[in-house]
Design brief:
By secondary structure, this protein is mainly alpha-helical. 38% of the residues lie in helices and 0% in strands. It contains two helices and no strands. The protein is globular. The two termini are 17 Å apart.
């Protein structure tokens, strides 16, 4: 049976109208459509220094493993 990939959360989202709990959360507090994950993901990556990529990856990996 095929899974519905749209129902999975691969990244920890920023809750709408709330301040980011962590700088690596994906999304923008006042403009958040879950269908735009890739745009929010790229915006967040572009704000990071290369030295943060490993921590960014592990932050979202741990979230994904917790919710699946």
């Amino acid at each position: 049976m095929k899974e519905n990939f749209k129902s999975k959360e691969y990244f920890k989202p920023c809750l709408r109208f709330k301040k980011r709990e962590h700088p690596y959360d994906i999304g923008m507090p006042f403009s958040w459509w879950q269908g735009h994950y890739d745009r929010h993901f790229l915006n967040n990556i572009y704000q990071r220094d290369e030295s943060e990529f490993d921590a960014f990856y592990h932050y979202h990996l741990s979230y994904f493993l917790k919710v699946t």
